[in-house]
Amino acid sequence: MSERTYHHGDLRRAVLTAALDVIRTEGPSALSLRDLARRAGVSHAAPAHHFKDRSGLLTAIATEGYDLLAASLADAPDLRERGVHYVRFAVEHPAHFQVMFQPDLYRPDDPELLAAKARATEELRAGVADRTPAEDAGLMGIAAWSIAHGFATLLLSHNLDRPVGDRDPEEVFRALTGVTFRTQPAGSKVGDDTMQE
Known about the structure:
There is one protein chain. By secondary structure, this protein is mainly α. It is 66% helix and 0% strand. The chain has 10 helices and no strands. Helix 1 (10-26) packs across helix 6. The longest helix has 23 residues, at 134-156.
């Protein structure tokens, strides 16, 4: 396939798609711009035109991932479902998920990345703000993120294959959060059926 085949950003998308395939099957360490150019059927210089280098490519992937995560969380109707949407995002976008939480792979001070990360963070915090006293919101946010992120990470690394089995991971996660927060201390303002983010 010739580089001239691509128009209006199609080359950039083709390289990103090839990179995501490599990350999903072999991990981020296997990425090479030269190999991606070969996979996309373009000259070896073409990916560098869009991303400059490997770090730039991974920055673009992390940025896209945070944007996708923010969009996914925005559709969640309540706190528990934000956790479900977080897990769903990880399952549907495993390559993005791998890259996003390894800041040594990309440029963490990139303005577009920072903006996308801020949008995702705001969506994560939104589920806690209206359910938790302000003084507890930070800790509850860490607790909820830890549960959703931990479950998603264990799921993607196949550490939950046996306990989850053939069940829908989203339903398992809902059950997990229901059990985890079933009993609350007296006077707690946290809902019994919520996963705290």
